[in-house]
């Protein structure tokens, strides 16, 4: 025990390097929690946070914290009710189906890019969210999907945080 | 606590006089009313409203009959989509089987399974304001 400790102390600069490396690993493995929320009278519903920046391989978990409502997390993807594609073409779409209070749903993101999603019963109320995975290339086609607004209600379009905001702050509430 | 309990009992007594109110005073109300949480994926008991029943043919307006944890009718709720509140539409002759009304609440709702578009809740409370506590949680 003592010997090991002395060895560690003796490492000096090496220890700092190891620590920062492991901190980065921890961050990459950390599950990002998104709460589905609503006012008690149902007058307002939202994802919290509404925008997140994550790393490839990181998992996002949505949980319904709203005791009086059900919510979904559903990717904008033709596979989901023929909705417009607002996520990387090569990535897999998701749809949680209705989550009752206390229920959760998780997705692991591997492809870099911008992913937009919505809540099926609350899209018209502006309940949408945006996830940015990694460092998408500015001209890799990842902005085109975001720019397309066809078939989305104004309330949803207005609600998305911008890519710039999310990249600058990592988390947008 | 005793006061909270007594007030709704008095209101219920007066509403029992009406025949229609008698049929829906206790959950479950007779057909064609059905439990909303069996029609769409929603919690059985909605905080602030209670356990809801509706005749699916009357969606989205309803009436929805809302019961407390003891199965006693607390309110009748109408859900009116905001987009239908315009010069070309109206909601006429909506049923009101719950009988006596103590007071009315009107408020905006962003939507929920069953009535997904943003709408207005018009709530006819059959209990006094203090009795709303019975469906608060
Ligand atoms: Cu929702």
Strand order of the largest sheet of chain B: 1-2-3-4-6-5
Shape of chain A: globular
CATH class of chain A: Mainly Beta
Number of helical regions of chain B? 3
Number of helices of chain A: 5
Mean pLDDT of chain B: 88
**What is the top-level CATH class of the domain at 44-133 in chain B?**
Alpha Beta
Largest protein interface, residues of each chain: A-B, 21 and 18 residues
Number of strands of chain A: 9
Q: Identify every distinct bound molecule in the structure, by name, code or SMILES.
A: copper (II) ion
The H-and-E topology of chain A, N to C, reads as: HHEEEEEEEEHHHE
The oligomeric state of the chains shown is heterodimer
Strand content of chain B: 15-25%
CATH H-tier superfamily of chain A? Cupredoxins -  blue copper proteins
**Which ranges of chain A are low-confidence, i.e. pLDDT below 50, for 5 or more consecutive residues?**
1-21
SS elements, strand count of chain B: 6
Element pattern of chain B in H and E: HHEHEEEEE
Topology:
The complex is a heterodimer of chains A (173) and B (137).
Chain A: H1 2-11, H2 13-29, E1 32-38, E2 45-48, E3 51-54, E4 58-64, E5 74-75, E6 104-109, E7 113-118, E8 128-133, H3 142-147, H4 154-159, H5 163-169, E9 171-172
Parallel strand pairs in A: 1-4, 3-8
Antiparallel strand pairs in A: 1-2, 3-9, 4-6, 5-7, 7-8
Chain B: H1 2-15, H2 19-24, E1 34-35, H3 36-39, E2 51-54, E3 64-67, E4 73-81, E5 103-109, E6 119-125
The complex binds copper (II) ion.
Copper (II) ion binds at residues 45, 71, 119, 121-122, 127 of chain A.
Features:
heterodimer; A: 173 residues; alpha+beta; Immunoglobulin-like; four-stranded mixed sheet; 5 helices; B: 137 residues; Phosphorylase Kinase, domain 1; 3 helices; 18% helix; globular; binds copper (II) ion
Q: Can you describe this structure?
A:
The complex is a heterodimer of chains A (173) and B (137). With 173 residues, chain A is α+β, with helices and mostly antiparallel strands. Chain A has a single domain (29-172), classed as Immunoglobulin-like, CATH 2.60.40. Chain A is 27% helix and 25% strand. Chain A has 5 helices and 9 strands, in the order H-H-E-E-E-E-E-E-E-E-H-H-H-E. Chain A has helices at 2-11, 13-29, 142-147, 154-159, 163-169, and strands at 32-38, 45-48, 51-54, 58-64, 74-75, 104-109, 113-118, 128-133, 171-172. Chain A has a 5-stranded mixed beta sheet. Chain A has a 4-stranded mixed beta sheet with strand order 2-1-4-6, with no helix packed on it. In chain A, a hairpin with a 6-residue loop joins strand 1 and strand 2 (45-48). Chain A is globular and about 40 Å long. The N and C termini of chain A lie far apart (45 Å). The model of chain A is unreliable at 1-21 (pLDDT under 50). Chain B is of the alpha+beta class. Chain B has a domain at 44-133: Phosphorylase Kinase, domain 1. Chain B contains 3 helices and 6 strands. A 6-stranded antiparallel beta sheet of chain B has the order 1-2-3-4-6-5. Chain B is globular, with a radius of gyration of 14 Å. Classes of the chains: A alpha+beta (173), B alpha+beta (137). Residues 45, 71, 119, 121-122, 127 of chain A line the site of copper (II) ion. Chain A: GO terms for molecular function: copper ion binding; electron transfer activity. Chain A: Residues 39-133 form the Blue (type 1) copper domain. Chain A: Keywords: Copper, Electron transport, Metal-binding, Transport. Chain A: It comes from Rhizobium azibense. Chain A: Its cofactor is Cu(2+). Chain B: Residues 68-108 form the TTHB210-like domain.
């Amino acid at each position: 025990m003592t010997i090991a400790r002395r060895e560690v102390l003796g490492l000096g600069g090496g220890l700092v390097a190891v620590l920062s490396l492991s901190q980065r690993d921890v961050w990459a493995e950390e599950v990002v929690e998104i709460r589905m929320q609503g006012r008690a009278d149902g007058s307002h519903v939202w994802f919290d946070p509404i925008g997140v920046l994550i790393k490839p391989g990181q998992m996002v978990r949505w949980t319904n914290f709203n005791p009086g409502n059900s919510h979904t997390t559903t990717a904008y993807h033709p596979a989901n009710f023929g909705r417009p594609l607002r996520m990387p073409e090569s990535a897999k779409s998701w749809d949680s189906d209705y989550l009752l209070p206390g229920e959760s749903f998780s997705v692991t993101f591997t492809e870099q890019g911008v992913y937009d999603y919505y809540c099926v019963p609350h899209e018209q109320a502006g309940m949408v969210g945006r996830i940015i995975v990694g460092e998408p290339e500015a001209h890799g086609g990842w902005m085109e999907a975001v720019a397309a607004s066809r078939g989305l209600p104004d309330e949803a379009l207005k609600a998305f945080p911008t890519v710039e905001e999310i990249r600058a702050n990592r988390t947008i509430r | 606590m005793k006061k909270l309990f007594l007030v709704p009992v008095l209101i219920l007594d007066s509403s029992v006089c009406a025949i229609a109110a008698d049929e829906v005073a206790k959950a479950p109300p007779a057909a064609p009313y059905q439990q909303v949480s069996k029609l769409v994926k929603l919690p059985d008991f909605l905080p602030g409203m209670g356990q809801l029943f509706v005749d699916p043919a009357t969606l989205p307006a309803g009436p929805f009959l809302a019961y407390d944890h003891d199965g006693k009718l607390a309110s009748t709720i109408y859900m009116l989509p905001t987009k239908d509140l315009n010069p070309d539409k109206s909601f006429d002759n909506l049923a009101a089987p719950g009988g006596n009304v103590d007071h009315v609440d009107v408020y905006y709702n962003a939507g929920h399974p069953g009535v997904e578009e943003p709408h207005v809740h018009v709530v006819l409370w059959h209990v006094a304001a203090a009795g709303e506590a019975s469906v608060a949680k």
